[in-house]
Design brief:
heterodimer; A: about 550 residues; mainly alpha; 2 strands; B: about 90 residues; about 75% helix; elongated; Carbon starvation protein A (chain A); cell membrane (chain A)
């Protein structure tokens, strides 16, 4: 199987989905109206509510939702073979993600740009809203713990990436200073920043940095995790203009450059996919494809995190309601395209099937390492960038994504603690520093409590992240479905994905709980149980709300 | 100016405006919050001065730097000082 065929099939499928299916959903189901006065105009305040150019808004939406997940999830899921991952990413993007993202923006825009959490309170009920807070907190906790491990693994596996990954922070700090203190034009600073970032990527492999195998009894992996959390804690309390804003910006630019390079290299090299379409020789201990495929690949197919961004910031900046199709649906396609690249690199970037099997020798293997190594091989052959520099570039790409998501995630987690401090009148918890320490502390408990001295607890809970994240997506779809029913419009286009997601999430959770119970892994069993209870309650709330809305509807 | 040059500068300006939007959009809220804080800080300073309460400004200065910097620079120039008189707040 040629990678170009897979690439073109995938992209063509998504393009057709955008051209036809999204138009049908936008015009017939959501009935997007170009004359509707969006909250961006109605409440325009120059702060939250600002009518924004749709291309800019698409960039904002896409880079906000693109974390490490669309890279890591598919690169792990190809263990079942490339076909299931490919089909789920393409059809998931067309029928699930695009509709979910566009629907979340529409639902929010039609409700004074309220966030999905607030909407849940209005449309479903207050109990569901409280559940939503718990689910959001768990997702953030898992994102931070998982991404800490992902970056640490990348740094241990690719010592050449240490300089560019940490150097990118310095580049962002300098950019922030140049823009705000020296008042240099943004165009010039952007060019300088990108050049500096790629210069670091070139220099990195020549000055590899490895931590000693043991520092105070901690492995190199564990030391990196601690350092990363220290960094994220500092980043989350620094003013946004200093680090987060320039870092996200330069990261977004790098994403576009990286994607173009990857697709160009695949088109030039046309590598053959060495992995089997359906892997019948699964390593022992690999869980069943159904339902775990649908929770392992969350971002790239459908992800609850998108609903938070879509209804949080995107909906407040939508200039015309019809833009929701481009921003939301095409944002989903952006993630799908990144996942597709990840599938291709993790299946076609190996010399032979034996090489591929050596990497995918157990479930949870491969992942970002397969993306980096496979991609490096294709980039070297296609564009002539040496394998070492290519590997560093892809590592930096994956690590920067995980890093920006991690420091934003930690900041959001801090806000939740501060909110709880206010709600329950615990004064010290309402302050920034103690709340940050609590956020970092809970992440470290998860990383080291579940993973032992290695600190890799985050990765053990990756499938749990999938289920929790899908729960969020389910809640968003539920809100959209209820709104459609209330307006007496066909609801099956969101109800079917909703039902599918809930069934797969519950099944996946039950299977995982069983294996945690057998392994006597009480920590994960406990955490999984919380998610299960939340999932069941969400399902019940869903049924109750549907019944209520039927009674209300004439 | 030749038409080609005009077109180039036009596209450069558009690209720059586009970039600025993309740079600012996700953080508009946080930066605006800092701007509001600036007003609050001013009130706090005035009241603190009146009541003899220790000055809390140093703690907030880092957050407000990008907003205060230009105005501070204009201010010290108007006061006849070529450079910033504060060690921890250097603008030029």
């Amino acid at each position: 199987m040629s990678a170009i065929v897979l690439l073109l099939l995938g992209l063509a499928g998504m393009a057709l989905g955008y051209l036809f299916y999204s138009r049908f959903i936008a015009q017939r189901i959501f009935k997007l109206d170009p004359d509707f006065r969006t909250p961006a105009h109605e409440f325009e305040d120059g702060i939250d509510f600002v009518p924004t150019n749709r291309f800019v808004l698409w960039g904002h939406h896409f880079t906000s939702v693109a974390g490490a997940a669309p890279i890591v999830g598919p690169a792990i899921a190809v263990i079942w073979g490339w076909l299931p991952a490919f089909l789920w990413v393409v059809f998931g993007t067309i029928f699930f993600a695009g509709v979910h993202d566009m629907g979340a923006i529409w639902a929010s825009v039609r409700n004074r740009a309220k966030s999905v959490g607030a909407l849940t309170g209005d449309v479903v009920g207050r109990r569901a809203r409280s559940l939503f807070m718990i689910v959001i907190f768990l997702v953030l906790l898992m994102v931070n713990a998982v991404f800490g491990v992902v970056i640490a693994r990348l740094l241990v596996g690719n010592p050449g990436a240490v300089v560019p990954v940490w150097g990118a922070i310095a580049v962002a700090l300098v950019i922030g200073q140049l823009i705000y203190r020296r008042l240099l034009p943004l165009g010039l600073v952007s060019v300088l920043g990108v050049i500096a970032l790629y210069a670091l990527i070139y220099v990195g492999p020549q000055v590899p940095v490895s931590l000693p195998d043991s520092t105070f009894g901690l492995s190199a992996n564990a030391s990196w995790i601690l350092l990363l959390f220290l960094y994220a804690a500092i980043a989350s309390v620094l003013p946004v203009w200093m680090l987060l804003q320039p870092r996200d910006y330069i990261n977004g630019l790098q994403l576009f450059v990286g994607l173009i390079l990857i697709y160009a290299a695949v088109l030039i090299v046309n590598p053959a996919i060495v992995a089997p379409a359906l892997n019948t020789d699964l390593p022992p201990g690999t869980p069943s494809l159904i339902p775990l495929l649908f929770v392992t690949i969350a971002c790239g197919a459908i992800s609850g995190f998108h609903g938070l961004v879509a209804s949080g910031t995107t909906s407040k900046q939508l200039a015309r309601e019809t833009d929701a199709r481009f921003v939301g649906y095409f944002g989903g396609i952006g993630e799908g395209a990144l996942s597709l690249a990840s599938i291709i690199l993790a299946t076609a970037g190996f010399a032979s099937l034996a090489d591929w099997q050596a990497v995918y020798h157990a479930f949870g293997q491969g992942g970002e390492a397969a993306f980096v190594n496979g991609g490096a091989r294709i980039l070297e052959q296609g564009i002539g960038i040496s394998a070492e520099v290519s590997a560093t570039m892809l590592t930096v790409m994956a690590a920067l994504f995980a890093g920006t998501t991690m420091d934003t995630g930690l900041r959001l987690q801090r806000y939740i603690f501060q909110e709880w401090g206010e709600i329950y009148q615990i004064k010290w918890m309402g302050k920034a520093l103690p709340a940050t320490l609590l956020a970092v502390g809970t992440c470290l408990v998860l990383a080291f409590g579940a993973g032992g001295a290695d600190g890799s607890g985050g990765l053990l809970i990756w499938p749990l992240f999938g289920t929790t994240n899908q729960l969020l997506a389910g809640l968003t779809l539920l809100v959209i479905t209820l709104m459609l029913i209330q307006r007496q419009r066909p609801a099956r286009y969101t109800a079917i994905p909703l039902a599918f997601l809930l069934v797969m999430t519950l099944l996946g959770l039950l299977l995982q709980l069983r294996s945690f119970f057998i392994d006597k892994n009480w920590f994960l069993f406990g955490l999984g149980s919380v998610v299960l209870v939340a999932a069941v309650l969400v399902a019940l709330e869903c049924v109750a709300a549907l019944r209520r809305s039927r009674q209300v509807a004439p | 100016m030749t038409p080609l040059w005009q077109r180039i500068t036009h596209w450069y300006r558009r690209a720059e405006a586009f970039g600025a939007e993309y740079y600012n959009a996700p953080y508009r809220r946080a930066i605006a919050a800092a701007r509001r804080d600036e007003e609050d800080l001013f009130m706090l300073l005035v009241f603190a001065e009146m009541m003899g309460i220790p000055n809390p400004a140093t703690w907030h200065t880092l957050e407000l730097q990008p907003l205060l910097l230009e105005r501070f620079h204009d201010w010290h120039r108007r006061q006849g000082m070529a450079h910033s008189p504060l060690d921890q707040f250097r603008c030029c």
